[in-house]
Amino acid sequence: MSSHRKKEETMPAKTPPTYVGLDIAKDQLDYCLSETVEGRCAYTPAGIAELIQKLRSVPQARVVCEASGATKS
Q1: Does residue 55 surpass a pLDDT of 70?
Q2: Which whole number is the average pLDDT over 9-28?
Q3: 51 membership: H or E segment, kind and range
Q4: Among 66, 62, 69, 72, which residue's Cα sits nearest to residue 33?
Q5: Which residues are registered as beta bridge partners of 29?
Q6: Long-range contacts from 55-64, C-beta under 8 angstroms, 24+ separation
Q7: Helix, strand or coil, per DSSP, at residue 46
Q8: What φ, ψ does residue 31 adopt, rounded to 5°?
Q9: Domain boundaries in the chain?
Q10: For residue 71, what is the DSSP state?
């Protein structure tokens, strides 16, 4: 077990984590900050900066990326 994981498990946060869903596509990032707040931004440096700004408003954000995509034969 990595020391980072051990620290997260043994040191309780003052605020429980908020899980943020993130779907990464070729040209865009789709995100879900809560049950009622979701959106999309461009997969560019400016779009990533925009998403980071939004994430700063989410206490204890934990970003979960969707594992999807086509497999090549």
Answers
A1: yes
A2: 81
A3: helix 45-55
A4: 62
A5: 24, 41
A6: 55/20, 58/18, 58/20, 58/33, 59/15, 59/18, 60/13, 60/15, 60/16, 60/17, 60/18, 61/17, 61/18, 61/20, 62/17, 62/18, 62/19, 62/20, 63/20, 63/22, 64/19, 64/20, 64/21, 64/22
A7: helix
A8: -130, 155
A9: 14-65
A10: P
